[in-house]
Amino acid sequence: MMKAAALLLAGSMALAACASDEKSGGTASESSASGGGKDLKIGLAYDTGGRGDRSFNDSAYAGVEAAIKEHGGKLSELSPNADASNRADLLTQLADQGYNPIIAVGFAYGQDVVTVAKQYPDVDFAIVDSSAEGQGADNLTGLLFAENEGSFLAGVAAALKTETNHIGFVGGVDTELIHKFEAGYVAGATAVKPDITVDRQYISPEGDFSGFNDPAKGKIVAQGMFDAGADIVYHAAGGSGLGVFQAAAAAGKRAIGVDSDQYQTVDDPALQAVIMTSMLKRVDNAVQAYIDSFVDGSVKGGSDVINDLSTDGVGLATSGGFIDDIKSDIDEYKQKIVDGEITVPTEPTK
Predict the structure, then answer these.
(1) Is the same domain home to 126 and 163?
(2) Is 28 helix (H, G, I), strand (E, B) or coil?
(3) 3-state SS assignment for residue 105
(4) Residue 17: is its pLDDT beyond 60?
(5) 293, exposed or middle or buried, with CB in 10 Å at 0-12, 13-18, 19+?
(6) Has residue 334 got a pLDDT over 70?
């Protein structure tokens, strides 16, 4: 059962200073708390951009911090180098230093975490956004999400709120995972308004993960959509989403955040004013629940944990009150998905 966690991530994100780690080519930090799990040593290997993206990576960090607050223990954080070529090295370094469990944040660790997990059979590993089933690593757990379902509700919200019948989607990297966000968003919007226009564009091609950490390009892409007539743009672009919010503020339009409640994680009131909602991908809940299961000995390696609308593993944020007036409509669509009346696609239409 997923434990409830606070949506307000900003406070926890400000904790724990980072120090340079030349060997890993990334950053590392430690934090600790008193409690029954004082011997608990959690290793966290971030996706591109590291902690501070106010989205995906920060949500994973918040989950670890919540678990440490409950169980005690300490955390070591590592981030990839500039070209993210050292992902396997990060996992190996954490394992060699005695961290257990080790959590890899992001599908880009997919093959590396399988390889390293097999080399360290006495260490428990988890990976966010990649399946562990059929990988031959009994000490690896996949933490998966129904991003398409949460994005469907984001599309519903956008379609109900648009004044131009024209909205947009900015993806960070043109890859299968981000296609799920696009597919759900378009399906939700067209379920409400079949004739709605949905512009779609990716910042970087498959294999180039820079699109998750390039706010300048995110701003350019979103600005093009606003200039073309869109009045709401949803991003699934990690740290690049900041640029989408900046473009919305400059154009006097609105945006939809992703992963974390981004109304709460941006510091600028001008950006808060344009974030009408965020598609919550509760990486924090999933990570915390995984650590809980590690502590109580119930981890089931070689399998996946699915976080969807039925478990509140995905959903929409209501901070700012911008979608309060359409809550009943959103709840109705959510229930239809949970009941199986609506099947949300995972691949976008061309």
Answers:
(1) no
(2) strand
(3) strand
(4) no
(5) middle
(6) yes
173 φ, ψ to 5°?
-130, 135
Work out the number of other CB atoms within 10 angstroms of the CB of residue 335.
Answer: 12
Task: Answer yes or no: is 346 within a domain.
Answer: no
Q: Which domain holds residue 54?
A: 10-145+283-308
Q: Which two tokens stand for residue 244?
A: 């989408």
Q: DSSP readout, 53-77?
A: SSSHHHHHHHHHHHHHHHH-EEEEE
Kindly state the average pLDDT of the residues 175-191: 97
Would residue 91 count as lying in a domain? Answer: yes
End-to-end CA distance of the chain: 37
Q: What letter represents residue 251's amino acid? A: A
- pLDDT exceeds cutoff 90 at 1: no
Q: Collapse the DSSP code of 118 into the 3-class scheme (helix H, G, I; strand E, B; otherwise coil) and give the result.
A: helix
Q: Which amino acid would we find at residue 309?
A: L
Instruction: Indicate the SS3 state at residue 83.
Output: coil
Domain assignment of residue 2, yes or no: no
Mean pLDDT of 135-161: 97
Same domain, 179 and 275: yes
Share above pLDDT 90 across residues of the chain, in percent, rounded to a whole number: 83
DSSP 100: B
Chain segment 43-87, per-residue pLDDT in tens: 999 998 899 888 889 999 999 999 999 999 999 999 999 888 999
Q: SS3 of 30, please?
A: coil
182 CB contacts (<8 Å, ≥6 apart)?
151, 169, 171, 200, 236, 348
Assess contact for 205 and 194: CB atoms under 8 A. no
How far is the C-alpha of 288 from the C-alpha of 298, rounded, in Å? 14
> How many Å apart are CA 199 and CA 169, to the nearest integer?
6
pLDDT digits (tens, 9 = 90+) for 132-142: 999 999 999 99
- 45 and 190 in a single domain? The answer is no
Measured in whole angstroms, the distance separating CA 165 from the mean position of its chain's CA atoms is: 28
Question: Whole-angstrom Cα distance, residue 280 to residue 74?
Answer: 27
pTM equals 0.82
pLDDT in tens, 211-226: 999 999 999 999 999 9
Same domain (yes/no): 334, 201: yes
Helix ranges (H only) for 144-279 are 147-161, 176-192, 215-227, 241-251, 262-265, 269-272
